Amino acid sequence: EAQVTQNPRYLITVTGKKLTVTCSQNMNHEYMSWYRQDPGLGLRQIYYSMNVEVTDKGDVPEGYKVSRKEKRNFPLILESPSPNQTSLYFCASSSGQGEGTEAFFGQGTRLTVV
Amino acid sequence: AQSVAQPEDQVNVAEGNPLTVKCTYSVSGNPYLFWYVQYPNRGLQFLLKYITGDNLVKGSYGFEAEFNKSQTSFHLKKPSALVSDSALYFCAVRDIGYSSASKIIFGSGTRLSIRP
Lengths: 114, 116
Hints:
The structure holds 2 protein chains of 2 kinds.
Chain A: E1 4-7, E2 10-13, E3 19-25, E4 31-38, E5 42-51, E6 54-57, E7 65-66, E8 76-78, E9 87-94, E10 104-105, E11 109-113
Parallel strand pairs in A: 2-11
Antiparallel strand pairs in A: 1-3, 3-8, 4-5, 4-9, 5-6, 7-8, 9-10, 9-11
Chain B: E1 3-5, E2 10-14, E3 19-21, E4 24-26, E5 33-38, E6 44-50, E7 56-58, E8 64-68, E9 73-78, E10 87-96, E11 102-106, E12 110-115
C-alpha cells in the first residue's frame, strides 16, 4: 500500500530536549516536505527536499533542521524545542516537481513542548 | 505572491442538501488547484485537482469543483451532503517559485459540518 509513515504520532517533550520526527514514503517520490498545522493558519511549509541531499527552507524554517540521505526518508529535527513549536506536523511526498502532481500526506505528529 | 483564500471558517449544511465550500486564489501564471480533506486524527487526503481542460472537475466521494478563471475561484461542491462528509477541507494552489522549486500553498481550511 502506498503510504507516508510518520513516527511518533504523539509526543510530549520538555523545552530544549532534542527530538526527531521520522518520515518515510514507499512510493519512490523525489519531492518531500514538512508542514505544520496551526488553527486558523492552515498548513505552512517548514522545509522541503527535491531529492537526495537537496533540501531548502520553506516559509517557517526557524528552529528546525532536516536531512535527506536516502530517497525514502526525510526526518525533521528540533535541536532545542520551544513551546511555540507545539503544533501538528505533517510530512508529505509527491513525484517530482510536476505542477499537476498531488501530494500524499502522513497521518501527522502532534507535538507538545512544555 | 501566490495565495489562496477560504473565506468561511465553518459551513453548516443539513444532510441531503447541496454543499459548497468556497475558495479563491491568486497566481501569476496558470493555476494548479487542489482540494484536500482532513478527517479527525488523520492526515490530509487528496480529493481532486484542476490542471487544465474542463472547468468542472470530479473527484472522490462524489465531490466536484468548478474552476472559474474570471472570478479566480475554485469552489468545492456536492449535490447531496452526507453526515460522513463532516471534516476539515483545504484548498491549495501550487506555487512556482523563482528557484523552480514547486510547493503547495494551502488555505486556512473550512470546517464542514453536516447535521442529520
